[in-house]
Amino acid sequence: MASFVYNGKTIETDDEGYLQNLGDWDKGLAEVLAKQENVELTEKHWKLIEWIRDYFQKFQVAPAIKSLTKEVMNLENLPDKKEANKFIYELFPEGPAKQLAKISGLPKPTGCV
Amino acid sequence: MAKPKSKYKIPVLDGNISIPKIVPGASSYEHMIGAQKEDMEALGFPEKLQDGWKDKALGVFKQILDHNKAVRDYMDICVRCGACTDKCQFFLGTSDPNNMPVQRQELMRKVYRYYFTPSGFFKSISNAQELTEEVLKEWYTYFWQCSECRRCSVFCPYGIDTAEITMAARQIMDSIGLGQKYTTEVIHKVYTTGNNIGINAAALRNTLDDLEEEIEEEGGKGVKIPMDVEGAEVLLVPPSADFFAMPHMESLKGYAKVFHKAGISYTVSSYASEAGNFGKFIGSYQNTKEINKRIWDEARRLKVKRVIIGECGHAWRAAYMYSNTMNGPFDFLDSKYKQPTHICDFTLGLVKDGVIKLDPTANDDKVVTFHDSCNVARGSRIGDVVGGQFTIPRELIKAAANKFVELREGTTKESTFCCGAGGGLLTEEVMNVRLAGSMPRMQTVKEAVDNHGVNFYALICAICKTQFTKVFPLYGLDAEMVGGIHQLVSNAIIM
Known about the structure:
- The structure holds 2 protein chains of 2 kinds.
- By secondary structure, chain A is mainly alpha-helical.
- Chain A has 5 helices and 2 strands, in the order ββααααα.
- Chain A has a two-stranded antiparallel ribbon with strand order 1-2.
- The longest helix of chain A is centred in the middle third of the chain and has 17 residues, at 43-59.
- Chain B has helices spanning 37-42, 53-67, 69-77, 89-94, 101-116, 123-126, 133-142, 151-155, 162-175, 181-193, 201-217, 248-262, 278-281, 285-301, 313-327, 343-352, 374-377, 388-400, 431-452, 462-474, 485-492, and strands at residues 234-237, 266-267, 306-309, 341-342, 368-370, 456-459, 482-484.
- In chain B, α2 (53-67) packs across α3 and α3 (69-77) packs across α9 (162-175).
- The mean pLDDT of chain B is 96.
């Protein structure tokens, strides 16, 4: 367990920096989490953050990687999944599971992934 | 894909797998993140170390010695010949003497001698050691740097199964509240959602819909991945990574196409949506049994005739070796079939019988090699013949692809190296241990790439797939090379 102060409030995270209370998340906090990951958020990042948060709200779990690449193909009008995958790693160099999930305030994906 | 900037210690790939000069304590600072309260409680363990932990630990130690004759023998019979010392990828990679299998076991044997043998009385000459918090710290560090791969056991003249010792140590630690976050969180998720990842039924159906759509787009018309269908002939239980991650999902597409072309009805289950069984990793009989039970309960409920397990190493061991004694007998299933059946055995059988046809030229852009996963290679068998766990995957690869080369001799089949992340090590905080453990295998991969132009690394284990996808780019290799055998089948099957 770790914590930091944001807007006068103590934000608890697990040992790897994922939010402990998912309700703590707001856009300002996403900026703080992104900074910790050395990611500068652009409009393209935000589109994915919003989509993955919607997905999580609906299913209580992060989307499968193929569902994410499919969404990126649609959002960014990319020709194939390979390009979509490249695009995702350009935005989140350490991978969607680690950085997109963390910045979006989702828990860390577990299991053999 | 951009090569990620690395904060890790990446071993040099010069082709050598040599015995390192020992560096005491070299990996003593690598630690697993401790378990969370809610996960420990869900698994029936105390949340943390409490007063009286020592008596409790020794009580569990004694129970293990009384109940598990093998472990008691392993405690007594090691003669310190040293045959195992240079066989462990974690010793070869970290240079830490506590990662020599004999020395790792000694961390437990010295406590055994103190409390459970007459020589413990003469502790100064028998190298016996009282169980202290300091000793526990060593246990937690080094028994979590073993992947329970059993490579050392192959070379042990006494046949000591080191994995059993690691599991016993973890069992003792769990019982006193010294758990590891990754494995306990995963097991807790199986109890609440049916799988390691936490995919509920609605999310799983959504994923399968996306996958069906993709198969259709790629020319696989009408291929379905049914879920929770009562009366299907086969219950297919893949590792949940096949529902979530890459390259795992490509193999799931392969299984789906095989069932479709063979005209055999099947279903996956949202209740038994996990083949993996992390209960084995933490040495907990109770949790292993509970996780395994979900598969057979679901087979009964869905009234299937047979159970097939997907590409997952320890899942296969847990299902193949333990199901019958833990949750059998399976007299409600069709006795014509092996229960459970490995997906590679199933598919190869269909190919041999001419029920499905593979066109290996579909994979002519690939030079394929195969990595034997430890729990399949050393912990179980596939099919009816001795060594089927070696021949069946290779035969299936050769039916699906024309170009196949073996990895370096002495590092395949029963002598295979671990990927470096099995047994509950597939977690970020020990990335340096994982990299060190991957070193010997990576030497042989690099060699196969450089000398034979290998560009496809075929696997039948979800953990291996994830570990290699992660470490390949750190070594400067393309992660896209990593894939499943059924990914090759998926490309080659004539629809």
